[in-house]
Input
Amino acid sequence: MEKSLNWYEFIITRLIKASGYSAILFVALIFFFLVREGIPTFGEVESTSLLNIRWYPIEDRFGILPLITGSIMVTFGAALIAVPFGIGTAIYISEIAPRWVREILKPLVELLGGLPSVVLGFLGILVLSPFLRVFLDLPTGLTAFTGSLLLGGIAVPTVVSVAEDALDAVPRAYREGAWALGATRWQTIWRVTLPAARSGVLTAIMLGIGRAIGETMAVMMVTGNAPVLATQLGSLFSPVRTMTATIAAEMGEVASGSTHYHVLFFIGMVLFLISLGVNIAASSVVFRAKKRAERILS
Amino acid sequence: MMRRAFSINRHLAQRLGFTFITLMAIATVLPIVATVIYILVKGLPAISLEFLTGFPHDGMRAGGILPAIIGTLYLTIGTAIFSVPLGIAAAIYLSEYAADTPLTRTIRIAIINLAGIPSVVYGLFGLGLFVLFLNFGTSILAASLTLSIMTLPVIISTAEESLRAVPQAFRTVSISLGATRWQTIRRIVLKEALPGILTGVILGLERAAGETAPILFTGAAFFLPRLPGSPFDATMALPYHLFVISTQVPEMPIRIQYGTALVLLVFVLTMNLIATVIRSRARAKRQW
Output
């Protein structure tokens, strides 16, 4: 009895440990398969033509530059929306709103995070883009700007929840100290709470941007899918195509093992590395901040 | 006099600032509410028994969306089968067993990275590993596995958080009464943390149910005349179906599009609501 219990315990513990390590295994596997299918690109397409400005797979033109600028432009626009609104909402929820409003707002923002991006893309096609076409007098409503607006909305919940956590984690004594010195609540928010939560807010911004770069369906549905190199700011109001949308739109139609297939995996690899960079940077900010806090306390 | 003017200024600034921030919060939340209500209003007329229980016909321009509903159900259940046990076990490891070593920190960074990987990259990975390398084909199995790995970080981090919230004293008492570590975890810690874990699981599965990009090349079918019969069959799914009928099918009746969006929204919102209710009830009942 005693012995079988020990065995049972031993096996369970091993299983739990193995599950714990699984996250590392999965990241490694994902990277491995992206590399495995993406690296042949270098043998098949010259690196100069990879950096070309023409993406036209039917004629074997695989310049990924327009896709990268497309992604950057849409993401940049999204950040311009998601960062101020996300941080503003986080400040409102954590510092200004009465308790009952907070209890309503938090689930609502979470709800936005849970809305399928395909539903937002669908509304983007039927409601947002016709409106923008008429309102801004454009030839088409399916533009980078439309994508930015939607993506901004999609990135907001990430920014809000991380920034709100960071603001919440600022000790109450900091605020009370500021109030006792005669600062208004508004001054306290700007000069005490927000600076104290700086690293968390920075993390929120980075994760929000990461969320925006990786978003696929909504962007694919509303940006018009034209792989044109963005050279000026006016391109914001013309159709573009992002890296994610290119993979999603074209992978279904390519033969596995073809050059086109390898290039699409290569783009996936680039996306993976971008998100890896963003996330490692974001978490190192958190770690650094923690170390600083520990230094202050000791 | 000077000082008085200054202080009025300060309070005016505060009032203006608060108004501004409040307006920003309203501008953020209002579109969310508007989106849900709009789809509700536009989609309701399409909902009928035939729409919910029939097969699509006339090139999907008429009939129902049953295969898509069932498909999403299958995918959600399939995702749960893989990701829930694995995710909870990983959370138990992180909260109950792991010391703060470089390896543990690597695990945490890996989880953060899994959470950040674009959904379409998961699709590529699923295509490379499950569909082609393991030869599962475009199937419910391949799609569920892909979605599971995507859902894992959500489940792990929420489950770990609620496990950690269980006071240390509970464990100490249980161990001192002669229980083994695993008995303590199973009968005390897991039991106390269950509502929190459940909330995380549902929120993770909610995301999986609404995702399109990861199943695009791993298991989604454009149209199927019958329901999938085994895990190795491809399946229709609500989000992919909505994508197809709103972008790929010309002259698609708008009513069916809104109806499909509504069904998907209700599917996802119901899960969200259940999670919220579980969480708030557990919070109200908690005594520690």
Notes: The CA atoms of residues 143 and 215 of chain B lie 5 Å apart. Chain B has one domain: 64-283.
